[in-house]
Each structure stands twice: as C-alpha cells, then as structure tokens.
Task: inverse folding
C-alpha cells in the first residue's frame, strides 16, 4: 500500500540515491572517473569541506548561522604557518620559530576563541547571528590581509611545517579500489563519527535540536540556551581551524584570500544534505552525503573538462534542485500529518 | 501544613505592575482554581512559581521553608511541575524526547555520557499508558493531535513525583472528550496527595474539580474562598469587576 511514511523515509534519504546516480553518470562520462586516483581525489577534496560542513551543521541545527568559518579557516592556517617559518622574503613568516605542535594548538585555540567571541556577541550583545557572523567574516579576512600586507606566507619545504603536510597531504594507507586514503580523509571521517555521536547520543546534541525546534520551550524547561549557542559557535570555530590546518598542508603558500567564497559551498553541502536553515532538522550523516555529492560533482565535471565557468552554474543548479526537493519534503510532511489525523 | 505559600508577591515590568502584593497558599491534596480575565496576572504568577520570572518583591515558601526559585530546574527540584499553556513542546522531536527534555537519562558522566534511548522510550511508553493515551514514544510531536500533545506535556510532570502541579489553561485547546480526561487526571492528583493549581477560564472545569477558587484582577487578589461558599455568578462578577470584592 502507498504510504506517506515510506515516501518520507525515501525523500529523507534521497541524498544517497542521488549520489549513486551521479556516480554512475560520471562513470559513463569519463573512463578516468572510476580510477583509484580520482576516487582518492574526491575524498581528499571532501575532507576540508566536510570539516566545515560538520561545524555548520551544529550551528544550523541550533537555529543559527555562521558565515565566518571560511575566514576563520584562512586565519587559522595563516597563523599556524606564520608562527613557525622565518621572516623575510619567500616565506614571509613571523620569525618566531615556534614548535609546530605548539603552533597548531595556538591555531586551533584561536579558532575556538573566535567562535566564542562571536557567540558572546550574539548572546550577551543581543545581536542577530547573521549580522555578527557577516561582520566577523569581513573583520577576520581583513585582519589576514592587514597582517600579511598581502604577502603569501609559505611553509613549503620547511621541515617544521611537516605536521601540517602530514594532515593535509600524507597518505595513511592504501585501500584497494579507493586508492590511497589520506590522513585528512581519515581525520574527517573521525570528525564525522564523533559529531554524529554528539548529535544523536549526547545530551548536548539533543538540546541543540530542542533549541532549534522551539527555543522558548527549551528555555522554559531549563536548558541554558545562550550558553549552548556560545558552545556551538566555539565548536564551529574549532572545526574551521581544523579545516585550516588541513588546507595549510595542501597549498604551497597561504595567500590572504585562502578559503574565500568557500562558505557558499559549505552552506550548499549542509542544505543538500538535508540540514534545515530554519533549525532543528538535519543529521550528520545527511550532511556528509551532501559533502560527498558536491565533491563528486566537482571532480566529475573536471574530468569531463567542463569549463570552470559552467561549473558554477551547475553547482548553483544543484543547490536549487536540492532546495526544491526539500520544499516538497515539507509539503509531503504536511500532507501526511493531515492524512494521519484524519484517520483518527 | 502548607506545601506552597506565596507572601506579598509583586512583579513589575518597568512601569507596569503585573502583580501587587499577592498572597497565595495551597495544602497537599487540594486543588486551587486560579481565575481572572486576560492580563489579570495569572500567567505571571504561574511563571514566578515555575522559576521563569523572579518576583520583584515577596517571599516564596515551599513546605514551610523559604526558598528562591530562580530557574525552571530549581522549581522542579522543589517538586513543582508545570504544564504550560502553549505546552512548550519541540515539534521536531519525538514524544519521548519531549518528555525527557532537560532531564534526559544518561549513562556515563559529562563529556562521555550517552543518552539511554531505550530506557527513556520505555519509561515514556509507561507514562503514556498511565495517561491512557495512544501516543507512542517515537512519534514526532508535529504529527500529533491536540490531545496527544497534551498527553506529552502531562507525562513530563509525572517523571518525578511532584508535590505541586501547575496547569496553565490545560483545557483551552483540546476536544470535549479530552477535557473530561484532564479533569479526571486532576482529581486523581488530588487523591494521591498532590497540590494542584488550575489556571483556567472555564468556570465549569474549576467548579467541577477545585476545592477553592482565587480570583485575580489587575494584578491584585480580590477573592479566595472555598468553592462550597461561592457560585459561578459571583466568580464571574469578580472576574469582570461587576463585584468589587468577595
């Protein structure tokens, strides 16, 4: 028998079906698509994006936005390398020669601190999260530019920067069929497992859903909503800095525009994965599906030698289609509510 | 013995005096009807007892001990449970998640704790059974009828063994058949020694289950008398202002 519930279940997990379809499509389009090298490329490209989307998913579920993560990612990468490389031309570092492990701790804590400050501005300052994070996006990017005066900071061929390249570039082990799995992919996988556990099986995650679903109710039942919001932004900042660490290990030098416009892809990934912009809805697994879909499309179009200009058009269309599906999901839900309440 | 005693409670929001020197008390096994027109201060009073607002002035005694209730969790720890007028449900969560919201059952500690889904679902199913509701723990609240939603909100009050149960307009948004269920529930709470405060507009409900009725008008308590010594006409007059004082 036709059942709305079954249909809803299908639509809720549609992302994986689409992913398979897109995958098959590209296999027929390019003989190189199913090579180990390409699969490993897709996964590596998904790694940095994935970390940012994971952070954004927490923020979105709590009913907030964080537009600033792309700048936090850039600044974290920049500071991390700057602290360890020599000053002067070719490297443009700070000449501090900090221990690289210490510099990573500095960079990650800075990311968390930025998130905490944003959270404080929103909760204590009573400001709208959209405006605060938009301002933070500009301020942090501006700081990066002012700090380096546009010079690219480079840790290339510097043994101290090895720990960055370890996360960004190193291959952990070889999996037949999937190619060499990089450390970055493993790290992102781990991030998703932990984030999934937090969201699904920890009180913290449950409270985020409650806040995103009905903030008023969450408050009335004794959840410290403002504190949770500060924590969520901290988490988002920390994950952005982790993404920065990964990305710093993948690029030769860190330009002051590292990560710019990345935020659009981050939102696209989360939304395509079924995370609602209205808050309270979405899962880590869905978000991961969105990330994989985006990077699969990206690599596939690359292999098909589609012009860079058209890639943007296609990415935009993918977002539109995803939103269209989401809108139908909401409508179907309403239909099914009517159907079930009429039965009673 | 008084289980809850409010003395000289006042609450102002800027220049607006929502409550002025209100005294209220209740004993175990008693049901008090709290009545008044819109804006009379009923909800403010409920929120003070629930810990959502702190009073500008006045004292609260729970079981004879002076207490301050600065947040909803403290109210619960003092044995005060509230069913809010708008029920305070999260539509995106399941019935069981809503029942346990704010006091989930965990295993482990702090960062390494884990929600015990099965334990919570089992307990929620038990509670729905006691309430004679067909609600299943894993149903999502947004797909429920008014009565089922009410059952979820009521189930929350039964998680602990409360001494005082506050019901803010519990019969406002449900069908007639379900109203009878709620009233039966209130009688049952009385019989088991709970103190019940029923905030309601519905004269019929108050006269059916309450032992005493208190009337608020413009932030002042203007009447507080046993149900046996009054009648719906008098109470209506007090609420509207046709009668100045009881």
Result:
């Amino acid at each position: 028998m036709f059942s709305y519930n079954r249909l809803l279940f299908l639509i809720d997990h549609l992302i994986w079906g689409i992913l398979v379809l897109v995958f098959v499509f590209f296999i027929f389009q390019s003989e190189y698509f199913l090579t180990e090298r390409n699969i490993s490329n897709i996964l590596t490209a998904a790694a940095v994006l994935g970390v940012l989307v994971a952070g954004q998913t927490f923020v979105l579920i709590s009913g907030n936005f964080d537009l600033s993560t792309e700048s936090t990612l850039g600044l974290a990468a920049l500071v991390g390398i700057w602290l360890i490389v020599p000053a002067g031309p070719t490297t443009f570092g700070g000449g501090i020669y900090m221990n690289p492990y210490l510099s990573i701790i500095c960079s990650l804590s800075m990311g968390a601190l930025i998130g905490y400050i944003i959270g404080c501005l929103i909760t204590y300052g009573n400001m709208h999260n959209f405006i605060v994070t938009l301002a933070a996006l500009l301020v942090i990017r501006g700081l990066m530019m002012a700090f380096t005066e546009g010079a690219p900071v480079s840790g290339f061929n510097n043994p101290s920067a090895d720990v960055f390249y370890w996360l960004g570039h190193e291959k952990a082990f070889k999996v037949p069929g999937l190619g060499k799995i990089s450390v970055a992919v493993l790290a992102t996988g781990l991030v998703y497992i932990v984030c999934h556990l937090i969201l699904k099986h920890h009180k913290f995650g449950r409270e985020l859903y409650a806040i995103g679903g009905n903030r008023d109710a969450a408050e009335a039942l004794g959840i410290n909503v403002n504190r949770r919001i500060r924590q969520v932004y901290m988490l988002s900042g920390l994950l952005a800095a982790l993404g920065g660490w990964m990305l710093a290990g993948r690029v030769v030098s860190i330009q002051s525009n590292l990560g710019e416009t990345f935020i659009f892809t981050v939102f696209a990934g989360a939304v395509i994965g079924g995370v609602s912009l209205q808050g309270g809805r979405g899962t880590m697994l869905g978000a991961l599906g969105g990330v994989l879909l985006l990077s699969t499309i990206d690599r596939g179009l690359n292999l098909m030698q589609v012009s860079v200009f058209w890639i943007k058009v296609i990415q935009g269309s993918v977002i539109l289609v995803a939103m269209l599906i989401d809108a139908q999901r909401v409508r179907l839900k309403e239909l099914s509510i009517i159907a079930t309440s009429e039965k009673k | 013995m008084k289980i809850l005693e409010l003395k000289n409670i006042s609450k102002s929001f800027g220049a607006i005096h929502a409550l002025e020197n209100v005294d209220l008390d209740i004993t175990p096994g008693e049901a008090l009807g709290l009545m008044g027109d819109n804006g009379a201060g009923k909800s403010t009073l409920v929120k003070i007892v629930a810990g959502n607002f702190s009073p500008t002035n006045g004292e609260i005694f729970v079981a004879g001990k002076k207490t301050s209730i600065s947040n909803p969790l403290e109210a619960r720890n003092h044995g005060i449970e509230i069913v809010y007028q708008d029920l305070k449900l999260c539509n995106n969560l399941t019935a069981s998640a809503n029942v346990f919201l704010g006091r989930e059952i965990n295993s482990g500690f702090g960062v390494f704790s884990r929600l015990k889904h099965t334990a919570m679902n089992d307990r929620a199913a038990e509670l729905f059974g006691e309430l004679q509701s067909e609600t299943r723990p894993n149903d999502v609240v947004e797909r429920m009828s008014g009565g089922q939603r009410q059952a979820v909100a009521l189930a929350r009050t039964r998680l602990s063994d409360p001494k005082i149960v506050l019901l803010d307009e519990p019969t406002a948004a449900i069908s007639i058949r379900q109203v009878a269920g709620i009233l039966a529930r209130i009688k049952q709470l009385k019989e088991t020694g709970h103190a019940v405060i029923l905030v309601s507009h519905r004269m019929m409900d108050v006269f059916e289950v309450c032992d005493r009725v208190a009337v608020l008008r413009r932030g002042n308590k203007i009447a507080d008398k046993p149900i046996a010594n009054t009648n719906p006409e008098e109470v209506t007059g007090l609420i509207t202002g046709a009668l100045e004082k009881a």
Q: What stands out?
A: The interface with chain B takes residues 197, 201-203, 206, 209-210, 212-214, 216-218, 220-223, 280-281, 333, 336-337, 340-341, 344 of chain A (CB under 8 Å). Chain A has a mean pLDDT of 90.
